[in-house]
Amino acid sequence: MHDLQLFTKDLSTGSRRKLLQTIIVTFILTFYGLSNVQAITPAEQEESSRRMQQEELRRRSQQESQERRSREQSKDTFLQPEVKSTQETTLPVEELSFLIHTLELGGERVEKFPWLQDMLLPYQGQKIGKDGINLIVKRLTNALIVRGYTTTRIGIPEQDLSSGTLKLMLVPGIIRNIHFTNPDTRANWYTAFPTRPGKILNLRDLEQGLEQIKRVPSQDADMQISPGENPGESDVNITMKSSNPFRMTLSLDDSGSKSTGKIQASTSLSFDNLFGLNDLFYISFNKDAQQEGDQYGTRGNSYQFSVPYGYWTFTLSGSSYNYHQTIRGANETFLSSGKSDNTEFRVQRLIHRDQQSKTSLEFGIIKKHSKSFIADTEIDSQRKNVTANEIGISHRQYFGKTVLDVKLDHRQGVPWFNAQAETGGADGLTTRYKLWTLDTTVSTPMKIGNVEGKYSFTFSGQYTKDLLYTADYFSIGNRYTVRGFDGEQTLLAEKGFYIRNEWSMAVAQGKEAYVGLDYGQVSGSGTQWLLGKKLAGAALGIRGTEGGIYYDIFTSWPLYKPEGYQTSPYSLGFQLSYQI
What we know:
This protein is α+β, with helices and mostly antiparallel strands. It is built from seven helices and 29 strands.
């Protein structure tokens, strides 16, 4: 026993962990009557674990890519052209003017506009005449329009300016009614609009409501504001255009791995406005399309339900994924399999919007379960039951036709919902991590001659000071991160980033060719086991729609990779989808 203690003491932490896993697996296999089967070696078990972890990271990269594309394609509504506000406070010199010591803003609901009273302060102590009063009113009205209060007015009541006091009157623009012009519509404005009849009319509220209606793919809406019966009142008239709320989408691509199924097929069912709340629901089923039986395979499903409430959006989503593959040992073959289940609940709140930008806060809870099996026997050391919360801020800014999207998130492992206890092992790995992620996209139109095109730039990164389990690593080297690589092997570690550049040009109606140039690198303690830290690659492809079928066909090749890094000299890839 003393010799064994000396032996294990000399082993590194990683070697002791691998040795312990091998002993456990050997014991389990023997216990279940498999004494004639040689237990897999540490290298073979490590390969099984690596493949599962790599598949998990690939699916996460795919999900993040889909979420980014969804954000980029979201419809924004701006109901007025850009109006410039001014900080100018000088007034014209007039022959007939009065020294004004106090400027008062009165009127119904004036307490809702404290910033208007602040705008009047610089005019105190100035001589003001008729033109000066009109200029002040114009500046206040312009400030109201900039902030979306387009039906609120500033009036000038009769008064004696010789008293040294200038009185102005605010006449708020009130919403009398919100209704659909086509009464048979199934849409519900109540969950979409953050305002109600009797509230002060603000275009920002109406823009938000239209966006919440239009976020449903089968719905489109137009809006008009008409005068109400009483002065200052307005009616909001919404005209709906609806199409089939049910969609089925069939997809086929080669985004999988050779070990679990290269060709992946999926069927998605989408139900728009299922409960009449401007809600979205979809469920998707996917599996490998090669049908290799016990040799290898994958199957999974996912769902998402999302419902708005004015400036709030609530989303519940989940996914389940299973894989299996045959591992060849020294004398026998073993069936290695794994299962993971993820559930997420997110709340998003838009906190600011103007004529050119939107800013939102988001809070989310993420629950993950994962298990690994060899010969239908679970490997307890690879079981994970973890919970994390995520707090983030996202911002979209328009610079003319250029669009900037930025999303910054802080994720933290927490003990909520029966998450497994922190082991506090000597290796320092933790499920109570703290990490930051940043995702930035810039898209701008470009033109070469008479050909329209677009350039897009994407940056995605992760940073942490903690030692993470592999499932939380940042990875690069597939079609969703750094293109040019077949995805069978990736670089992964606790920290990292990648940059994607893409130039696309229209080549025909509904078709575009594109060129991609990508770079990425990883860092952290996990890199000590890697061949290198950096990858660079390029891609060339064409995408579009033909006969109702969307396609994306591309080839990619590595520009830089570490010595010994195994990947194809070039990769061909495709994605096909058809919506019924």
